[in-house]
Write a structure and sequence with these properties.
Radius of gyration: 19 Å
CATH superfamily: Rhomboid-like
Distance between the termini: 15 Å
Structural class: mainly alpha
Number of domains: 1
Largest sheet: 3 strands, antiparallel
Number of strands: 5
CATH topology: Rhomboid-like fold
Length: 257
Amino acid sequence: MFPLKDNIPTERTPILTIAFIAINVFVYFVLQKGGILSGPDQAIVVDWGAIPYEITNPGKECAVVAGQIACEGMPGVVGTAPGQPPTLVTVFTSMFMHGSILHLAGNMLFLWIFGNNVEDAMGHVRFALFYLLGGVAAIALQVIAEPNAAVPTIGASGAVAAVLGGYILLYPRARVITLIFIVFFFTILELPAMLILGFWFLQQVVFGFYEVANPAGGGGGVAYFAHIGGFVFGLAVIKLFAQRHKDYSPPPRFPVY
């Protein structure tokens, strides 16, 4: 399912939503040196991404050695890593980094569709704080789930998940025009946002706990617990941040083609 547009209008220009999208795009193409057909520079990702091992082992740094990630203090690792950014800084820089063009595009699509309404309900300053704290909460749960992981956690997914959690409570009757792929065919449906976002969250929970139960199976590099942490944060604090909002969504009706 690919959401295309919701039916909730905004009263204010989503300045921060647009700014966050612009920053993410700039970071990926310019600072990370990522491309459309190629991913970003691995060393940059390791330097500026949030690595759970570094967070749970203060003073220990990770770096790329012979194409592999090595962390100080790990078995078989000797020597010290070259100068690295402060770990606290990487918690925030990681929110604006992505592993591929598809990773970037997917996050920015969700941020644009749902972020503009959440920003409209909060105001610009509150939205910026909510977004950043949502990203921090996302990384926190990922670190709790995998405290010794040496793989960088990057992406706006956690912060965007917080936006989704807030949106679902602010606009429970909203509907979203959605592109549905069925094998080689596709159709466009107008579906309840509650259904789309609820299904997305359920996926994160199922895949996240499957990964914990089957660590050898791999998770495809997806930080499921970061998504869960961000979404739950959004659900929990949205009423503290939303100053005003009006549910413009029409009464429930059947999906249309």
